[in-house]
Structure to design on (484 residues):
């Protein structure tokens, strides 16, 4: 833990709530990530490269690219987020932090929720902010670009939550990257469908409330259940 | 007293004997019903007025598709029972279910493609049901991949069971989303045999096939379960006694 999450003495006596502990864990994860910047930048660079590959592979004509832009964006975002998921619990499992979390007597569910939230803030939100640029490069009209942020932000949140379960389940597995994709991607099909549809409508300048709400519903389901499942999965992996 | 039967389900020797005894009681009715239903479906049922004889693929395709979900439900329920009551036999049931379910799903996909050729003029169309079956196959493969990647069988059991339960919540959502997805892109292509217009001589063999396939699944499950118990209990003393006697 390198002393970064030591509680002030007064708070120890007051017994911080599960939520306070989760905020501390979140702050720790964010601080660690900003000290190791390559982990922040790599998913974004990956996303940029994947997005660049499509015009090279399909066609440079913007009119055609505009049609496939939602799919390209979402496949890229899904893979970039998944790439980062592999490291969601990996370092903490190796140096024993996760074990200490589990033994601390605090709610492991809340702690993992904090870690998942950190993952989303560190990969999902930057991806959502970069997605309009990529969409613009793929021929989406400039007026539609701001509305692309919301679907990607909500979709990556749902994906972080779903992926946290997969990352926790594959903790004990060597070279888990491919396995993590194999178990997470089929379950992420609804995110892809609703997300790509919302983006498609956003690029076309139409109302994308319906798919965004479905995406939000999936994210809310993840918010309520995924940390519980991830906590159970981490306990299985630590045994 | 009333719960004795439930607790006995947790005992591998009891289940092993029970599975041995019950297998023929499922296998034979399954064989008889499937043969009768095939005769009813392939010979007795009249050809469809639109699809001709091509519709008869339904008698294999629909039961396979039905079983792909039914087996996943069994798998998820067994997994949940295993996680909640720490029941070894339930994990063995879940482990036995996965390859059966994956095979049914693959069969549903293949028969669906053979069905698609005369109906749609192409083997593969991104029909929502067919796409859903494909995703379901990936889910089965992911489950089996996760299970086989652990060295410790107990961890494999618990981790894969967790995944099965998570998948069970997600599968209806995937089904809904694929249906919703395709209805946006194109009108539901060609046939939906589930409509109430299906004639009785066509429907009865279909229902018999569903029953026959379900019984067949139980029979295969019992056989696989015995194999699974043998493998897991290979060093147990009851097994030595059972084999020697």
């Amino acid at each position: 833990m390198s002393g970064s999450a030591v509680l002030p003495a007064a708070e120890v006596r007051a017994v911080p709530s599960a939520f306070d502990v989760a905020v501390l864990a979140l702050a720790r994860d964010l601080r660690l990530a900003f000290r190791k910047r390559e982990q922040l930048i790599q998913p974004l660079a990956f996303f940029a490269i994947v997005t660049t590959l499509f015009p090279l592979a399909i066609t440079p004509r913007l009119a055609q690219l505009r049609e496939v832009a939602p799919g390209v964006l979402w496949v890229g975002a899904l893979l970039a987020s998944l790439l980062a998921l592999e490291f969601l619990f990996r370092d903490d499992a190796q140096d024993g932090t996760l074990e200490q979390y589990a033994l601390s007597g605090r709610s492991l569910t809340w702690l993992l929720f904090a870690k998942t939230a950190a993952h989303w803030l560190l990969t999902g939100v930057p991806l959502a902010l970069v997605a309009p640029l990529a969409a613009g490069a793929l021929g989406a009209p400039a007026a539609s670009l701001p509305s692309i942020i919301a679907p990607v932000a909500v979709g990556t949140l749902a994906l972080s939550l779903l992926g946290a379960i997969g990352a926790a389940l594959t903790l004990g597995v060597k070279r888990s990257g491919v396995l993590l994709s194999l178990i997470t991607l089929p379950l992420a099909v609804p995110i892809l469908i609703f997300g790509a549809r919302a983006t498609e409508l956003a690029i076309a300048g139409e109302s994308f409330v319906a798919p965004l709400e479905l995406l939000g519903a999936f994210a809310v389901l993840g918010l309520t259940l995924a940390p519980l499942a991830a906590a159970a999965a981490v306990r299985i992996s630590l045994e | 007293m009333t719960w004795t039967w439930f607790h006995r389900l947790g005992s591998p020797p009891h289940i092993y004997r029970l599975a041995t005894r019950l297998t023929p009681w499922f296998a034979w009715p399954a064989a008889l019903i499937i043969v009768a239903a095939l005769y009813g479906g392939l010979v007795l049922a009249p050809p469809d007025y639109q699809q001709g004889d091509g519709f008869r693929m339904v008698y294999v395709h629909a039961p396979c598709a039905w079983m792909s979900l039914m087996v996943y439900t069994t798998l998820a329920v067994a997994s949940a029972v295993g996680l909640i009551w720490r029941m070894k036999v339930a994990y063995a049931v879940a482990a036995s279910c996965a390859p059966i379910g994956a095979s049914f799903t693959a069969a549903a996909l293949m028969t669906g493609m053979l069905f698609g050729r005369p109906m749609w003029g192409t083997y593969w169309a991104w029909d929502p049901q067919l796409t859903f079956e494909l995703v379901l196959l990936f889910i089965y493969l992911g489950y089996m991949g996760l299970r086989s990647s652990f060295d410790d069988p107990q961890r494999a059991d618990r981790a894969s069971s967790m995944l099965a339960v998570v998948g069970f919540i997600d599968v209806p959502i995937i089904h809904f989303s694929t249906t919703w997805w395709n209805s946006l892109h194109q009108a539901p292509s060609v046939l939906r045999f589930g409509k109430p217009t299906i004639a009785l001589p066509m429907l009865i063999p279909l229902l018999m096939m569903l029953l026959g396939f379900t019984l067949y699944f139980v029979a295969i499950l019992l056989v696989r379960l015995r194999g699974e118990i043998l493998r897991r209990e290979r060093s147990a003393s009851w097994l030595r006694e059972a084999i020697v006697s």
